[in-house]
Specification:
Blueprint: H1 2-16, H2 21-32, H3 36-55, H4 60-64, H5 68-93, H6 97-100, H7 107-119, H8 122-136, H9 143-166, H10 177-203
Helix pairs in contact: 1-8, 1-9, 2-3, 2-9, 2-10, 3-7, 3-8, 3-9, 5-10
Length: 204
């Protein structure tokens, strides 16, 4: 069981480590020190639900609904394009006084954006329902399989809370509008790059 749990942790951590739209948003909120706990809990909790579904065999849904990947890709790309545009707009305007003073959006809006990043991202389904679900089949049903899933869930919680609360170490650097402008430009580029990657299979 220990080996299954460690394998699940390593698998989950390696899949979530890449800087994507969701991670960039958590990083930004961590720098603002706004709603960090609830945001990290939501992101990790969402992963836990999807991982549990994947380990339980729910990955068959993707096979049963062939159009699902395309629908999720188009919806996700549209959201990422619009959000990236807002970051470019903020970088262009450069009015960061409220953010530097620690003010930000409401908890409800923050969670709504996080929900879109999570549930409109087809890669989340590929990683959790698909890859983690598929790898879990290599373990015996019962304790070993759920030890693997628990390890993957633990990796998600460890990553998001480390990213959210670890971001404050960069706070001294982020006290100038210029630093926030650079961050928003980078986040905008990440959003558009991911959107383009989602659309690429349907444009070629």
């Amino acid at each position: 069981m220990l080996w299954a749990g460690l394998t699940g942790f390593a698998t989950g951590f390696s899949l979530i480590l890449a800087i994507g739209a969701q991670n960039a948003f958590v990083l930004r909120q961590g720098l603002l020190r706004q709603h960090v706990f609830w945001l990290c809990l939501f992101c990790a909790g969402s992963d836990a639900v999807l991982i549990a579904a994947g380990v339980a065999g729910f990955a068959a849904l993707v096979l049963a609904l062939p159009a699902l990947p395309m629908v999720m890709s188009l919806a996700g790309a549209a959201f990422l394009f619009v959000y990236g545009l807002t970051r470019f707009r903020e970088a262009w305007i450069g009015e960061y006084a409220l953010q530097i003073d620690g003010q930000s959006r409401s908890l409800k809006k923050t969670i709504a954006i996080a929900a879109a990043f999570t549930w409109l991202n087809p890669h989340v389904y590929l990683d959790t329902l698909g890859l983690i679900g598929a790898i879990s089949t290599g373990f015996a049903d019962g304790a070993q399989k759920w030890a693997f899933g628990s390890g993957a869930v633990l990796a998600s919680f460890s990553f998001f809370f480390s990213l959210g609360y670890g971001a404050r170490l960069l706070a001294p650097i982020m006290q100038s509008p210029r630093a926030w402008r650079v961050l928003d430009l980078l986040i905008g580029l990440v959003m558009w790059a991911i959107a383009a990657k989602l659309l690429h299979p349907y444009l070629t």
